[in-house]
Amino acid sequence: SFILQPALTRTVSLAAVESTVEKPTMSLLDARTQARWAGEEEPIDPIAGHIPTSACYPLNDNLNPDGTFKSATELAERFAELPDPITCYCGSGVTACHNVLALKIAGREAGLFVDSWSGWIRDPQHPVGRAEPSV
């Protein structure tokens, strides 16, 4: 017997992300590594960088050394400064789910921008964020 459960998250449209880049209305979290977010390396997509207004919250920072999730308290502390609503993305929409789940463990809700970075850069009109080089 299958029992339908509520969805873990909601999806966030491209139009909503475009809107928040123009006028921030949500916290936008990138689950990729700092180097990929900063535009220093990009092993998959033809363009490196991040969606402007996003913050880098690498998924590995949700984990203990043994690979298990940190406690709800630790995760709540990690995400405490973020105002709602929160939307997570990554390169292709898969690893962003890690941050969605970590936020759920922390007692927060987050949406998923399924298109993620790979979808964002398909439109040459979309701006690309890059971190300033360190001196």
Structural descriptors:
135 residues, five-stranded parallel sheet, 5 helices, alpha/beta
What is the spatial order of strands in the main beta sheet? Answer: 1-5-4-2-3
Helix/strand order:
EHEHEHEHEH
Q: What's the count of strands? A: 5
Q: Beta-sheet strand percentage?
A: 5-15%
* Helix/sheet category: alpha/beta
Quaternary: single chain
Could you tell me the mean pLDDT? 95
Shape: globular
Largest sheet, if any?
5 strands, parallel
User: What is the number of helices?
Assistant: 5
Q: What is the end-to-end distance?
A: 60 Å
Q: Rg from C-alpha positions? A: 15 Å
Helix content: 25-40%
Low-confidence stretches: none
Overall description:
By secondary structure, this protein is of the alpha/beta class. Helices cover 27% and strands 10% of the residues. The chain has 5 helices and 5 strands. The protein has helices spanning 14-22, 34-38, 72-79, 96-105, 116-120, and strands at 10-11, 27-30, 55-56, 86-89, 111-112. Strands 1-5-4-2-3 form a 5-stranded parallel sheet, with helices on one face. The longest helix has 10 residues, at 96-105. It is globular, with a radius of gyration of 15 Å. The N and C termini lie far apart (60 Å). The mean pLDDT is 95.
Kindly summarize this structure in a few lines.
With 135 residues, the chain is of the alpha/beta class.
Architecture blueprint of SSEs:
Blueprint: E1 10-11, H1 14-22, E2 27-30, H2 34-38, E3 55-56, H3 72-79, E4 86-89, H4 96-105, E5 111-112, H5 116-120
Parallel strand pairs: 1-5, 2-3, 2-4, 4-5
